[in-house]
């Protein structure tokens, strides 16, 4: 069954054949690999209070590593993690520990983000990057999260916060109903613009712009989830199937954390063959 989980992971990402081939190679490399944990890891709550945190006896555990490359705030998505953790706790009666190792570029910035997002789950602030040194994780953040069994061996790889299909896979494995599959009718969409330029604005001003998708297929358009490349973006849209011929407006709310040029992406996971749809926003906050 372990092999089935890993093979199913491949279909949870991109439809492009070359991309699938790359993912297949990555999955083969990590298949059944045992994740090694540092001998001494210090877990804290909001970067301040040290706590005792044990997960070695759990039948399953979800482990996520965040590196210091790029914008740490863009990678964390702590509110989304909190919602997913609630789903898993409800499903599994809080029996699946979530193990977070963060390798911060700036530890004070990371502490600020954890407190700002009121994230109270224990995390290890791995300043020396010991966890990665032991395991040599993939460089892509989409593949720095793992579902492990009791022996710490990988049974699925992928970030459930970034991809709703990976989230569905994790929940099915945990619930023991991996064999139950559902099919969704596919459709097609036309998009008015793949990129929006926000222009220049004061970084203290919250900006809103909208993308418009038109369902040009024969089945309802169903948006499973929308993920963003940065926590400084939020989206707003009608969460219901869009009939053929009708439009879906997706509003992007951007709140700059500092003055900078930005180039961010939004991934729309929906029932089209080329899902996810990648949209982009650019601009300059002054």
TrEMBL record:
Organism: Bacteroides intestinalis
One Pfam family linked to the record: DUF1573
PANTHER family linked: LIPOPROTEIN-RELATED (PTHR37833), SIGNAL PEPTIDE PROTEIN (PTHR37833:SF1)
Gene3D superfamilies assigned to the protein according to its UniProt record, in alphabetical order: Immunoglobulins (2.60.40.10)
Name of the protein in its database record: DUF1573 domain-containing protein
């Amino acid at each position: 069954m372990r092999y089935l989980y890993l093979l199913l992971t491949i279909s949870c990402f991109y439809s492009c054949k070359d991309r699938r081939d790359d993912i297949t190679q990555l999955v083969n490399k990590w298949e059944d690999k045992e994740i090694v944990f540092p001998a001494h890891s210090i877990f804290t709550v909001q970067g301040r209070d040290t706590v005792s945190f044990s997960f070695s006896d759990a039948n399953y555990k979800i482990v996520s590593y965040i590196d210091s490359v790029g914008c740490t705030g863009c990678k964390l998505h702590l509110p989304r993690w909190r919602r997913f953790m609630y789903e898993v706790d409800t499903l599994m009666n809080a029996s699946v520990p979530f193990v977070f190792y963060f390798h911060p570029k700036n530890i004070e910035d990371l502490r600020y983000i954890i407190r700002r997002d009121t994230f109270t789950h224990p995390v290890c602030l791995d300043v020396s990057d010991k966890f990665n040194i032991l395991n040599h994780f993939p460089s892509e953040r989409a593949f720095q999260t793992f579902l492990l069994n009791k022996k710490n061996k990988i049974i699925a790889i992928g970030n459930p916060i970034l991809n709703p299909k990976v989230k569905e896979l994790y929940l099915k494995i945990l619930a023991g109903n991996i064999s139950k599959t559902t099919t969704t009718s596919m459709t097609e969409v036309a998009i008015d613009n793949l990129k929006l330029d926000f222009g220049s604005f004061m970084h203290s001003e919250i900006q809103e712009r909208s993308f418009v998708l038109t369902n040009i297929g024969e089945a309802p358009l169903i948006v499973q989830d929308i993920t963003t490349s940065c926590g400084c973006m939020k989206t707003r849209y009608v969460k219901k199937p869009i009939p053929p011929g009708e439009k879906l407006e997706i509003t992007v709310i951007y709140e700059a954390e500092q003055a900078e040029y930005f180039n961010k992406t939004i991934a729309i996971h929906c029932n089209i063959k080329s899902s996810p749809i990648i949209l982009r926003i650019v601009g300059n906050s002054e």
